[in-house]
Amino acid sequence: VQLQAYGGGLVQAGGSLRLSCAASGRTFSNYAVGWFRQAPGKEREFVATISWTEGRTYLADFVKGRFTISRDNAKNTVYLQMSSLKPEDTAVYYCAARYPGVAFSDSGYAYWGQGTQVTVSS
């Protein structure tokens, strides 16, 4: 499965962005999809994930209450809605997919998108 992440950009602190992760090659059916991010000089970290069959969502503590993850089966797309953005949210955001269930470590994901830059200005 090929993944494409898009929707990043420059936003002021307190603003919102919606990232999208679109699959091609095959559908997301039965795949869990996760979002990770990597800031300059830091390791890549887990942000959120959603299971495909049950739609269960899991969020990192530092984004709870600000970010939501959702999916649109018909469009074969997973979204990361980000609100109340902070400068520390600045990073390259990646989406990834794995089969069959969710995982919280990047080593558990076999398929990756190219990443989209999110920059939050203070």
Overview of the structural elements:
This protein is mainly beta and 122 residues long. 0% of the residues lie in helices and 50% in strands. It has strands at residues 2-6, 9-12, 17-24, 32-38, 45-50, 57-59, 67-72, 77-82, 91-98, 111-112, 116-121. The strands form two sheets. Strands 2, 4, 5, 6, 9, 10 and 11 form a seven-stranded mixed β-sheet that branches. It has a four-stranded antiparallel β-sheet with strand order 1-3-8-7, with no helix packed on it. Strand 4 and strand 5 (45-50) form a beta hairpin. The radius of gyration is 13 Å and the shape is globular. The relative contact order is 0.32. The model has no long low-confidence stretch (mean pLDDT 94).
- Helical residues, percent: under 10%
Q: Main β-sheet: number of strands, strand sense, barrel status?
A: 7 strands, mixed
How confident is the prediction overall: mean pLDDT? 94
Radius of gyration: 13 Å
Number of strands: 11
- Order of helical and strand elements: EEEEEEEEEEE
Number of helices: 0
The proportion of residues in beta strands is over 45%
